[in-house]
C-alpha cells in the first residue's frame, strides 16, 4: 500500500504526471457519468449521480485547458531543438515529425484564443477557433500514427537483420520493447482520433454521434495507455541508473 501511495505522490509532483492523472479522472468520470445518465428511466438517483460526474468531468477538462496556457514555450523549445530533424536518418520519419511539431505548435494558440473568447477576454466567436484547434489536434494524431507505423517498419527491418546475422549495437529485446511502445502509441492516438472526429462540425464522418460514455471510454483507454507508457519510461530510467 505504501509504495503505491508513494508512486502516486511522485506522479502528482510532476506537471506531466499530474496532467495524466487529471486526464484519466476526467474521461473516467465521463465514462461512468455517461453510462449512469442513460439509466434515467430506470433509476433517478443514478441519473443524478451521472449528471454530477459529467459536470465534474467538464470542470477537469476546463482545468486542463487552463493549464495548457503555459505549454507554448516548452513546445517551442522542443520544436526548435528538433528543427528539421537533421539527426534522423530516414527522410519520411523526419518530415512526419516536422509536420507533427508544426501541428502541435499551432494547436496551442488556437485553443488559447478559443478559451479567451469563451471567457469573454476577446471579442471573437470561439466556435471557429475550437474547430481549428480540433483539426490541428486530429492532424497531429494522424501524423503521429503514420510516424509510429514508419518507426515500426524500420524497427522490424533492424530486428530481422539482428536475428539473421549482425544487429550491431541493438539487442532484440530492446527492439521489441521499442516496437511495443510504438504499438501503444498507435492505440492511444487512434482512440483519441476517434474522439477528435466526434468533436468536428456535424456532417464530417461520425462527428457528434458519440454518446458521452463512448467519448469517456475512448479517452480512458488513451489515458491508461499514457500512464502505462509513463510508468514504463520511469522504470527504464531507473534500470539504466
Instruction: Quote the distance from N terminus to C terminus.
Output: 25 Å
The succession of helices and strands, N to C, reads HHHHHHHH
What share of the residues does DSSP label as strand, in percent? under 5%
What is the average of the pLDDT values?
90
Largest sheet: none
Q: Give the low-confidence spans.
A: none
In DSSP terms (H or I, runs of 4 or more residues), the helix count works out at 8
Which word captures the global form?
globular
Radius of gyration: 20 Å
* Structural classification: mainly alpha
Q: State the helical fraction.
A: over 70%
* Total strand segments: 0
Protein name: Peroxisomal membrane protein 11C
Transmembrane segments: 129-149
GO biological process, one term: peroxisome fission
Pfam family, one: PEX11
Overview of this protein structure:
With 241 residues, the protein is mostly helical. Helix content is 80%, strand content 0%. The protein contains 8 helices and no strands. The radius of gyration is 20 Å and the shape is globular. The chain starts with a helix and ends with a helix. 22% of the residues are buried. The model has no long low-confidence stretch (mean pLDDT 90).
Brief overview:
The chain is an all-alpha fold.
Write the layout of secondary structure elements.
Elements (H helix, E strand, L loop, with lengths): L1 H12 L1 H23 L6 H24 L4 H11 L8 H28 L8 H38 L7 H27 L13 H29 L1
Helix pairs in contact: 1-2, 2-3, 2-8, 4-5, 5-6, 6-7, 7-8
Keywords: Membrane, Peroxisome, Transmembrane, Transmembrane helix
Main location: membrane
Organism: Champsocephalus gunnari (Mackerel icefish)
Amino acid at each position: 500500500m505504501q509504495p503505491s501511495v508513494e508512486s502516486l505522490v511522485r506522479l502528482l509532483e510532476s506537471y506531466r504526471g499530474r496532467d495524466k492523472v487529471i486526464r484519466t479522472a476526467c474521461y473516467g468520470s465521463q465514462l461512468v457519468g455517461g453510462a449512469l445518465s442513460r439509466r434515467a428511466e430506470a433509476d433517478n438517483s443514478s441519473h443524478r449521480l451521472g449528471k454530477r460526474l459529467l459536470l465534474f468531468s467538464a470542470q477537469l477538462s476546463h482545468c486542463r485547458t487552463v493549464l495548457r496556457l503555459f505549454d507554448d514555450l516548452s513546445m517551442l523549445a522542443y520544436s526548435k531543438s528538433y528543427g528539421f530533424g537533421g539527426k534522423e536518418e530516414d527522410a519520411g520519419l523526419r518530415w512526419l515529425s516536422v509536420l507533427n511539431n508544426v501541428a502541435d505548435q499551432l494547436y496551442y494558440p488556437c485553443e488559447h484564443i478559443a478559451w479567451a473568447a469563451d471567457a469573454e477576454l476577446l471579442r471573437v466567436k470561439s466556435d471557429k477557433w475550437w474547430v481549428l484547434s480540433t483539426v490541428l489536434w486530429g492532424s497531429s494524431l494522424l501524423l503521429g500514427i503514420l510516424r509510429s507505423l514508419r518507426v515500426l517498419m524500420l524497427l522490424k527491418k533492424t530486428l530481422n537483420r539482428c536475428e539473421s546475422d549482425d544487429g550491431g549495437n541493438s539487442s532484440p529485446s530492446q527492439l521489441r520493447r521499442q516496437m511495443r511502445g510504438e504499438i501503444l502509441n498507435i492505440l492511444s492516438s487512434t482512440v483519441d482520433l476517434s474522439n477528435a472526429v466526434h468533436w468536428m462540425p456535424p456532417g464530417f464522418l461520425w462527428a457528434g454521434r458519440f454518446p458521452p460514455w463512448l467519448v469517456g471510454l475512448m479517452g480512458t483507454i488513451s489515458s491508461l495507455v499514457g500512464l502505462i507508457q509513463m510508468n514504463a519510461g520511469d522504470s527504464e530510467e531507473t534500470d539504466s541508473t
